[in-house]
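Protein in question passed on here:
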Amino acid sequence: MQKHSQFFSGSSGIEEHFFTLSAPVHETFAQDVSFILDAYKTLAAQYDCGEKDEFLLRFHLSDPANQEATLKKLLGERDSFVSIVGQPPLNSRIALEVWCWKNWREMKNYTPYWFQSATSKKGSYAQTAAEFAELDDFITARGMTVELNTIRTWLYCKDVDNNYADLVTARNDYFATRGMTADTHFITSTGIAGQCGDPHRLVRMDTLSFAGIKREQIQFLYALENLSPTAIYGVSFERGTRMIWGDRSHYYISGTASIDKTGAVLHIGDVRLQTRRMMENIRALLNEGGADISDIKWGTLYLRDMCDASIALEEISAAGVDAEIPLVVTQAPVCRPTWLVEMECIAIKAEKNPFPILG
Protein backbone atom coordinates (compact mmCIF):
# COMPACT_ATOMS: atom_id res chain seq x y z
CA MET A 1 0.00 0.00 0.00
CA GLN A 2 1.13 3.55 -0.77
CA LYS A 3 0.32 6.28 1.76
CA HIS A 4 1.63 9.81 2.08
CA SER A 5 0.77 12.87 4.15
CA GLN A 6 1.57 16.57 4.41
CA PHE A 7 0.69 19.12 7.08
CA PHE A 8 0.38 22.89 7.36
CA SER A 9 -0.50 25.05 10.37
CA GLY A 10 -0.91 28.82 10.44
CA SER A 11 -1.41 31.36 13.20
CA SER A 12 -5.19 30.97 12.97
CA GLY A 13 -5.01 27.50 14.47
CA ILE A 14 -6.56 25.99 11.35
CA GLU A 15 -4.38 22.98 10.55
CA GLU A 16 -4.54 21.49 7.07
CA HIS A 17 -3.67 17.86 6.45
CA PHE A 18 -3.36 16.12 3.10
CA PHE A 19 -3.36 12.35 2.73
CA THR A 20 -3.23 9.97 -0.21
CA LEU A 21 -3.68 6.23 0.00
CA SER A 22 -4.02 3.40 -2.49
CA ALA A 23 -5.16 -0.13 -1.69
CA PRO A 24 -3.54 -3.39 -2.77
CA VAL A 25 -5.75 -5.56 -4.93
CA HIS A 26 -7.77 -8.09 -2.93
CA GLU A 27 -10.09 -10.83 -4.12
CA THR A 28 -13.06 -8.44 -4.14
CA PHE A 29 -13.43 -4.71 -4.55
CA ALA A 30 -15.32 -4.56 -1.23
CA GLN A 31 -12.17 -5.83 0.46
CA ASP A 32 -10.17 -3.11 -1.29
CA VAL A 33 -12.58 -0.47 0.03
CA SER A 34 -12.55 -1.80 3.58
CA PHE A 35 -8.76 -1.89 3.53
CA ILE A 36 -8.36 1.69 2.32
CA LEU A 37 -10.96 3.08 4.74
CA ASP A 38 -9.32 1.31 7.68
CA ALA A 39 -5.88 2.53 6.59
CA TYR A 40 -7.16 6.09 6.22
CA LYS A 41 -8.77 6.01 9.68
CA THR A 42 -5.51 4.83 11.22
CA LEU A 43 -3.41 7.40 9.37
CA ALA A 44 -5.75 10.29 10.19
CA ALA A 45 -5.79 9.33 13.86
CA GLN A 46 -2.01 9.77 13.98
CA TYR A 47 -2.65 13.46 13.24
CA ASP A 48 -5.73 13.73 15.46
CA CYS A 49 -7.97 14.09 12.40
CA GLY A 50 -11.47 12.67 12.29
CA GLU A 51 -14.58 12.74 10.17
CA LYS A 52 -15.51 16.19 11.48
CA ASP A 53 -12.28 17.56 9.96
CA GLU A 54 -12.82 16.13 6.47
CA PHE A 55 -12.92 18.90 3.89
CA LEU A 56 -12.70 16.71 0.79
CA LEU A 57 -12.61 12.99 0.09
CA ARG A 58 -11.86 12.15 -3.53
CA PHE A 59 -11.87 8.52 -4.62
CA HIS A 60 -10.32 7.38 -7.91
CA LEU A 61 -11.81 4.11 -9.17
CA SER A 62 -10.79 1.77 -11.97
CA ASP A 63 -14.38 0.82 -12.93
CA PRO A 64 -16.95 3.18 -11.37
CA ALA A 65 -19.95 1.62 -13.12
CA ASN A 66 -19.36 -1.57 -11.15
CA GLN A 67 -17.64 -0.14 -8.07
CA GLU A 68 -19.37 3.09 -7.06
CA ALA A 69 -22.38 1.45 -5.36
CA THR A 70 -20.11 -0.76 -3.25
CA LEU A 71 -17.97 2.20 -2.23
CA LYS A 72 -20.97 4.31 -1.24
CA LYS A 73 -22.44 1.47 0.82
CA LEU A 74 -19.22 0.90 2.77
CA LEU A 75 -18.52 4.62 3.12
CA GLY A 76 -21.93 5.18 4.70
CA GLU A 77 -23.57 8.50 5.49
CA ARG A 78 -20.92 11.18 5.86
CA ASP A 79 -21.15 14.91 6.46
CA SER A 80 -18.21 15.54 4.14
CA PHE A 81 -17.85 16.41 0.49
CA VAL A 82 -17.19 13.18 -1.40
CA SER A 83 -16.07 13.05 -5.03
CA ILE A 84 -15.94 9.73 -6.90
CA VAL A 85 -14.11 9.73 -10.23
CA GLY A 86 -13.47 6.96 -12.71
CA GLN A 87 -9.73 7.37 -13.24
CA PRO A 88 -7.82 4.11 -12.77
CA PRO A 89 -5.06 4.63 -10.20
CA LEU A 90 -1.57 3.21 -10.57
CA ASN A 91 -1.34 -0.45 -9.48
CA SER A 92 -4.70 -0.36 -7.70
CA ARG A 93 -8.46 -0.41 -8.15
CA ILE A 94 -9.00 2.44 -5.69
CA ALA A 95 -7.01 5.44 -4.47
CA LEU A 96 -8.08 8.10 -2.00
CA GLU A 97 -7.15 11.77 -1.70
CA VAL A 98 -8.08 13.50 1.56
CA TRP A 99 -7.96 17.15 2.54
CA CYS A 100 -8.66 17.72 6.25
CA TRP A 101 -8.95 21.12 7.94
CA LYS A 102 -8.99 21.06 11.71
CA ASN A 103 -11.95 23.10 13.00
CA TRP A 104 -12.94 24.35 9.55
CA ARG A 105 -16.65 24.07 10.40
CA GLU A 106 -16.11 26.68 13.11
CA MET A 107 -14.49 29.31 10.91
CA LYS A 108 -15.94 32.79 11.45
CA ASN A 109 -14.23 34.91 8.78
CA TYR A 110 -14.98 32.76 5.74
CA THR A 111 -17.40 29.99 4.82
CA PRO A 112 -16.33 27.36 2.25
CA TYR A 113 -18.87 25.63 0.04
CA TRP A 114 -18.46 22.56 -2.13
CA PHE A 115 -21.00 21.88 -4.85
CA GLN A 116 -21.76 18.99 -7.19
CA SER A 117 -24.67 18.90 -9.63
CA ALA A 118 -27.15 16.06 -10.07
CA THR A 119 -28.14 16.91 -13.63
CA SER A 120 -29.84 14.30 -15.81
CA LYS A 121 -29.41 16.17 -19.10
CA LYS A 122 -28.12 14.32 -22.15
CA GLY A 123 -24.99 15.27 -24.07
CA SER A 124 -21.76 16.88 -22.90
CA TYR A 125 -22.85 20.42 -23.86
CA ALA A 126 -26.18 20.13 -22.04
CA GLN A 127 -24.65 18.48 -19.00
CA THR A 128 -21.91 21.12 -18.70
CA ALA A 129 -24.43 23.93 -19.13
CA ALA A 130 -26.62 22.37 -16.43
CA GLU A 131 -23.65 22.00 -14.09
CA PHE A 132 -22.91 25.73 -14.29
CA ALA A 133 -26.59 26.75 -14.14
CA GLU A 134 -27.13 24.69 -10.98
CA LEU A 135 -23.91 26.06 -9.49
CA ASP A 136 -25.14 29.58 -10.25
CA ASP A 137 -28.43 28.91 -8.45
CA PHE A 138 -26.61 27.40 -5.45
CA ILE A 139 -24.18 30.31 -5.16
CA THR A 140 -26.82 33.03 -5.70
CA ALA A 141 -29.07 31.51 -3.03
CA ARG A 142 -26.25 32.06 -0.53
CA GLY A 143 -25.67 35.69 -1.41
CA MET A 144 -22.58 35.10 -3.52
CA THR A 145 -21.59 35.26 -7.19
CA VAL A 146 -19.68 32.73 -9.24
CA GLU A 147 -17.35 35.38 -10.63
CA LEU A 148 -16.18 36.46 -7.15
CA ASN A 149 -16.70 33.50 -4.86
CA THR A 150 -16.08 30.37 -6.94
CA ILE A 151 -12.35 29.72 -6.77
CA ARG A 152 -11.78 26.27 -8.23
CA THR A 153 -13.54 23.81 -10.53
CA TRP A 154 -12.80 20.25 -11.61
CA LEU A 155 -14.54 19.00 -14.75
CA TYR A 156 -14.46 15.26 -15.42
CA CYS A 157 -15.30 14.27 -18.97
CA LYS A 158 -16.02 10.77 -20.26
CA ASP A 159 -14.18 10.07 -23.54
CA VAL A 160 -12.39 13.40 -23.41
CA ASP A 161 -11.14 13.06 -27.00
CA ASN A 162 -14.73 13.27 -28.28
CA ASN A 163 -16.73 15.12 -25.61
CA TYR A 164 -14.37 17.83 -24.41
CA ALA A 165 -15.09 20.26 -27.25
CA ASP A 166 -18.77 20.59 -26.29
CA LEU A 167 -17.77 20.95 -22.63
CA VAL A 168 -15.52 23.87 -23.59
CA THR A 169 -18.25 25.53 -25.66
CA ALA A 170 -20.80 25.25 -22.86
CA ARG A 171 -18.35 26.69 -20.32
CA ASN A 172 -17.44 29.53 -22.67
CA ASP A 173 -21.13 30.30 -23.22
CA TYR A 174 -21.85 30.35 -19.49
CA PHE A 175 -18.96 32.68 -18.72
CA ALA A 176 -20.08 35.01 -21.51
CA THR A 177 -23.49 35.35 -19.83
CA ARG A 178 -21.71 36.34 -16.59
CA GLY A 179 -19.54 38.96 -18.29
CA MET A 180 -16.46 36.85 -17.61
CA THR A 181 -13.96 37.30 -20.45
CA ALA A 182 -10.23 37.18 -21.10
CA ASP A 183 -10.20 40.86 -20.11
CA THR A 184 -11.75 40.13 -16.70
CA HIS A 185 -11.04 36.61 -15.45
CA PHE A 186 -12.21 33.02 -15.53
CA ILE A 187 -11.85 30.29 -12.85
CA THR A 188 -8.91 28.03 -12.13
CA SER A 189 -9.89 24.60 -13.41
CA THR A 190 -8.89 21.09 -14.32
CA GLY A 191 -10.67 19.58 -17.33
CA ILE A 192 -9.67 15.96 -17.62
CA ALA A 193 -10.92 12.51 -18.59
CA GLY A 194 -13.02 10.92 -15.86
CA GLN A 195 -16.05 8.65 -15.73
CA CYS A 196 -19.05 8.47 -13.42
CA GLY A 197 -20.88 5.52 -11.95
CA ASP A 198 -23.74 6.39 -14.30
CA PRO A 199 -22.44 5.46 -17.77
CA HIS A 200 -24.78 8.03 -19.36
CA ARG A 201 -23.15 10.88 -17.49
CA LEU A 202 -20.57 12.48 -19.79
CA VAL A 203 -19.56 15.45 -17.62
CA ARG A 204 -19.42 16.02 -13.88
CA MET A 205 -18.09 19.06 -12.07
CA ASP A 206 -16.87 19.70 -8.52
CA THR A 207 -16.56 23.31 -7.36
CA LEU A 208 -15.07 25.09 -4.35
CA SER A 209 -16.35 28.54 -3.36
CA PHE A 210 -15.75 30.81 -0.37
CA ALA A 211 -18.13 33.32 1.19
CA GLY A 212 -16.59 36.33 2.89
CA ILE A 213 -13.72 36.97 0.48
CA LYS A 214 -12.86 40.24 -1.26
CA ARG A 215 -11.56 40.65 -4.80
CA GLU A 216 -8.23 41.96 -3.42
CA GLN A 217 -7.61 38.54 -1.88
CA ILE A 218 -7.47 36.86 -5.28
CA GLN A 219 -4.38 36.89 -7.50
CA PHE A 220 -4.64 35.09 -10.81
CA LEU A 221 -1.42 33.46 -11.96
CA TYR A 222 -0.42 33.61 -15.62
CA ALA A 223 3.36 33.03 -16.04
CA LEU A 224 3.17 34.48 -19.54
CA GLU A 225 6.85 33.87 -20.23
CA ASN A 226 6.06 30.16 -20.03
CA LEU A 227 2.38 29.72 -20.83
CA SER A 228 -0.17 31.30 -23.14
CA PRO A 229 -3.44 32.84 -22.03
CA THR A 230 -5.99 30.05 -22.33
CA ALA A 231 -8.24 32.16 -24.57
CA ILE A 232 -5.63 31.89 -27.34
CA TYR A 233 -6.85 28.37 -28.06
CA GLY A 234 -10.51 28.96 -27.30
CA VAL A 235 -10.86 27.76 -23.70
CA SER A 236 -11.80 29.71 -20.61
CA PHE A 237 -9.98 28.93 -17.39
CA GLU A 238 -7.20 30.44 -15.31
CA ARG A 239 -3.81 28.75 -15.00
CA GLY A 240 -3.74 29.25 -11.26
CA THR A 241 -5.15 31.26 -8.38
CA ARG A 242 -3.47 32.52 -5.24
CA MET A 243 -5.99 32.94 -2.40
CA ILE A 244 -4.57 35.42 0.09
CA TRP A 245 -5.70 34.79 3.66
CA GLY A 246 -4.43 36.66 6.71
CA ASP A 247 -2.03 33.94 7.86
CA ARG A 248 -1.31 32.01 4.65
CA SER A 249 -1.78 31.87 0.91
CA HIS A 250 -3.33 28.96 -0.94
CA TYR A 251 -2.15 28.30 -4.47
CA TYR A 252 -4.58 26.37 -6.64
CA ILE A 253 -2.77 25.28 -9.80
CA SER A 254 -4.93 24.06 -12.68
CA GLY A 255 -4.14 20.93 -14.60
CA THR A 256 -0.84 21.94 -16.25
CA ALA A 257 0.86 20.27 -19.20
CA SER A 258 3.78 20.74 -21.60
CA ILE A 259 2.72 23.96 -23.32
CA ASP A 260 4.57 27.10 -24.39
CA LYS A 261 3.62 30.78 -24.42
CA THR A 262 2.07 30.48 -27.89
CA GLY A 263 -0.29 27.69 -26.79
CA ALA A 264 1.63 24.94 -28.63
CA VAL A 265 2.27 21.45 -27.27
CA LEU A 266 5.97 20.93 -26.63
CA HIS A 267 7.95 17.66 -26.95
CA ILE A 268 5.31 15.61 -28.74
CA GLY A 269 5.85 11.89 -28.11
CA ASP A 270 8.41 12.36 -25.30
CA VAL A 271 6.87 11.95 -21.84
CA ARG A 272 10.14 12.74 -20.05
CA LEU A 273 10.57 16.12 -21.70
CA GLN A 274 6.85 16.84 -21.41
CA THR A 275 6.98 16.20 -17.66
CA ARG A 276 10.07 18.38 -17.36
CA ARG A 277 8.33 21.26 -19.14
CA MET A 278 5.16 20.70 -17.11
CA MET A 279 7.14 21.15 -13.89
CA GLU A 280 8.85 24.26 -15.28
CA ASN A 281 5.40 25.70 -15.96
CA ILE A 282 4.11 24.83 -12.48
CA ARG A 283 7.18 26.41 -10.92
CA ALA A 284 6.68 29.57 -12.98
CA LEU A 285 3.04 29.85 -11.86
CA LEU A 286 3.96 29.38 -8.20
CA ASN A 287 6.89 31.81 -8.45
CA GLU A 288 4.60 34.50 -9.84
CA GLY A 289 2.60 34.31 -6.62
CA GLY A 290 5.65 34.22 -4.34
CA ALA A 291 5.72 30.44 -3.78
CA ASP A 292 7.82 27.58 -5.09
CA ILE A 293 7.83 23.82 -5.69
CA SER A 294 8.76 23.26 -2.03
CA ASP A 295 5.39 24.74 -0.98
CA ILE A 296 3.37 22.04 -2.78
CA LYS A 297 1.28 20.02 -0.33
CA TRP A 298 -0.79 17.83 -2.62
CA GLY A 299 -0.96 16.86 -6.28
CA THR A 300 -2.69 14.64 -8.82
CA LEU A 301 -0.79 13.30 -11.82
CA TYR A 302 -2.75 12.40 -14.95
CA LEU A 303 -1.26 10.11 -17.58
CA ARG A 304 -2.51 9.02 -20.96
CA ASP A 305 -0.49 5.80 -20.71
CA MET A 306 0.30 4.30 -17.29
CA CYS A 307 3.48 2.77 -18.72
CA ASP A 308 4.90 6.30 -18.50
CA ALA A 309 4.43 6.54 -14.73
CA SER A 310 7.99 5.78 -13.63
CA ILE A 311 9.50 8.30 -16.06
CA ALA A 312 7.05 11.04 -15.05
CA LEU A 313 7.66 10.41 -11.36
CA GLU A 314 11.45 10.55 -11.90
CA GLU A 315 11.11 13.99 -13.49
CA ILE A 316 8.74 15.27 -10.81
CA SER A 317 11.26 14.24 -8.16
CA ALA A 318 14.10 15.83 -10.12
CA ALA A 319 12.12 19.08 -10.17
CA GLY A 320 12.28 19.18 -6.37
CA VAL A 321 8.94 17.72 -5.34
CA ASP A 322 9.33 15.92 -2.00
CA ALA A 323 8.91 12.14 -2.32
CA GLU A 324 6.47 12.23 0.61
CA ILE A 325 4.10 14.68 -1.09
CA PRO A 326 0.64 13.09 -1.39
CA LEU A 327 0.46 12.43 -5.13
CA VAL A 328 -2.07 10.11 -6.75
CA VAL A 329 -1.14 8.82 -10.21
CA THR A 330 -4.11 8.05 -12.46
CA GLN A 331 -4.85 7.10 -16.04
CA ALA A 332 -6.75 10.11 -17.37
CA PRO A 333 -6.11 11.42 -20.89
CA VAL A 334 -5.66 15.18 -21.20
CA CYS A 335 -7.80 17.35 -23.49
CA ARG A 336 -5.31 17.18 -26.40
CA PRO A 337 -4.20 13.69 -27.47
CA THR A 338 -0.59 14.83 -27.87
CA TRP A 339 -0.36 15.79 -24.20
CA LEU A 340 0.91 12.67 -22.47
CA VAL A 341 0.99 14.03 -18.92
CA GLU A 342 -0.68 16.70 -16.79
CA MET A 343 -0.52 17.62 -13.12
CA GLU A 344 -2.54 19.80 -10.76
CA CYS A 345 -1.53 20.76 -7.26
CA ILE A 346 -2.22 22.80 -4.15
CA ALA A 347 0.56 24.75 -2.45
CA ILE A 348 0.41 26.63 0.86
CA LYS A 349 2.75 29.26 2.23
CA ALA A 350 2.75 30.90 5.66
CA GLU A 351 2.37 34.69 5.40
CA LYS A 352 1.16 37.77 7.23
CA ASN A 353 -1.35 39.55 5.01
CA PRO A 354 -3.74 42.48 5.68
CA PHE A 355 -6.86 40.29 5.59
CA PRO A 356 -8.77 38.26 8.16
CA ILE A 357 -7.03 35.02 9.05
CA LEU A 358 -8.36 31.71 7.79
CA GLY A 359 -10.37 31.09 10.92
Q: What stands out?
A: The first strand starts at residue 2 and ends at 9. The CA atoms of residues 184 and 336 lie 26 Å apart. The chain has a mean pLDDT of 96.
